[in-house]
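Hi there, hope your week has been kind to you so far. Do you reckon you could talk me through the fold, stretch by stretch? Thanks so much in advance, here it is.
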Amino acid sequence: MALYNSLLLVTFVSFIVLVQAQDQSGFVSIDCGLPDGSRYIDETTDINYTSHVEFFETGTSHIIDTEFRTSSLEIQFNNVRSFPQGKRNCYHHLIRTRFMYGNYDGQHLTPEFDLYLGVNLWDSVILDNETTIVTKEIIHTLGSDHVQVCLVDKGRGTPFMSVLELRLLKNDMYETPHDKLMLIARRVVGSISNISVRYKDDAYDRLWTPRQFENFTTLNTSLSIDQTSSNCLQPPLIVMRTANAPRKAIQYIDMFLEPKDPKGKNETREFTVLVNGEPMEPTVFSPRFLFTDTISNKNPVKGSRIEISIRPTNRSTLQPIINAIEVYQVNESLQPPTHQLDVDAIMKIKAMYRVKKDWQGDPCVPIDYSWEGLNCENPPRILLCENLAKLIYELILQRKLGKKQINGLASTKTTGEIKHRITEAKRGRKSGSLFIFFMSRDEEE
């Protein structure tokens, strides 16, 4: 099993209790491009989707080409919102973004653009063709009551978005010292279906895509699960019902299909999980029957190629299995944002004069996308100087206010500098995290 970049690793063993809370509290689901004020309930997932009007300040809505509007396509991809004006376009409350071009503009030219989380690069969005669906997801520990996600125009086509979703997680889920974990893969292993698992099976609406490992046997069970235990990552029940095992474990399939008394069997399943040849903790792992257990690496794994192997111990009579796996890349915050008091002040000016074009995201950083008309210094602070009066004067002209108001402001001069302390962000290399789920099948049906 080969992976790329630097990763964090976690492994789960056993079944998990399905979280009963199904009320969508903590969900924000935006169907980008939906007409203003519109909302609907998805017939497949029962998720409530709303239009962009409360979250987007710029952009235009479009419907994809009828050629690509198929019955199997998720309804959220029928509309997009594109951003032809401005270098950077931002909105709040994100965990997951999804994109499908669908030739909405009739140009047959798939764009390429960058995705920023706040002032730091998250990832690039590259679509192979009109029907390619790209999903970007990140787990982010918020330091305030909002987060900005920006689409950055690279001159390779107009940025757009199909879906924007926020899902609130429990505080003890995915605990790491890193505030951003970028999803590389989340797989349900051994699934006999080609349909992804999400809400309501997963109370947190994580997307689990099916994966069959080559030269592995598929296992599944309908055994009842001990629901008195818990696992903080809470993979959904349906995910933990399937698994892959090496082919030579085929001799155990009959035991799996025919339930037997666990106490009457003298079988042992234990193994070691190695990453690039180094064992993870615990070095010898024995999954409990019908419990969900997790193995995760404490420190990020670094390297251009990451290889994960699972090896049975000498005393193990049963082959290793794997139920599910999650892989994340640590996304470090290398650039500090503009000081919050500076941001609050300029945002009041923006709101007062209803500025939209080019005033998106952080006012000062990244420097290539700083707000037009502002002067900033490093560490990121806004310098208020004489040209601020001219800037506000131009904003008033844009709103076509009365001549008396314009003349009154034109004579105003503002000088000085906003001084604040700012903590330098620590710089570090990209690294990542991997979560693997296992369930013990010593007593297969």
Q: What stands out?
A: The chain has three domains: 27-167, 180-332+430-438, 340-410. Residues 44 and 74 are 9 Å apart (CA to CA).
